[in-house]
Amino acid sequence: MKSVDEKDVKIIKMLMDDARISYTNMAKKLNITEAAVRKRVKNLESRGVIRKYTVEIDSSKLGYNIISLTGIDTEPEKFLDVAKNLKNEDFAKSVYITTGDHMIMAEIWAKDGDELTKIISEKIGKLPGVKKICPAIILEKVK
After folding, report:
1. What is the tens place of the pLDDT at every residue in 67-102?
2. Measured between alpha carbons, how far is residue 141 from residues 20, 42, 77, 95 in Å?
3. Which structural domains are found in the chain, ordered by start?
């Protein structure tokens, strides 16, 4: 598979900063044609380098005032089942299978501490195979 070159990396960085940046704007910054940018972006998409475009949400404006990065430990034979169950829950915005301190990490959105407690005790805690739940509430996103 063809590797990305310096211009591709710059395109990726621009899209990561602003997924709505126009091809015209990128072309001006890179000193290439809009058609060249369009072709490069399509190529990056077709090769799976760019998988999707997304938005960053201010969760508090939607009423979610508590965001928790939650580590979840399970019985070894159940961790994939737990991860699959979590990915289907609306409160879990991201779910990762990890190495390190916890088998699963989930980004949990809750309206307040009471709702987070209910999610942990009544939803996550009752999934078959869950042994330990370690929430860490995010105070501020720096980057």
Report:
1. 999 999 999 999 999 999 999 999 999 999 999 899
2. 22, 31, 34, 18
3. 6-46 (1.10.10.10), 59-137 (3.30.70.920)
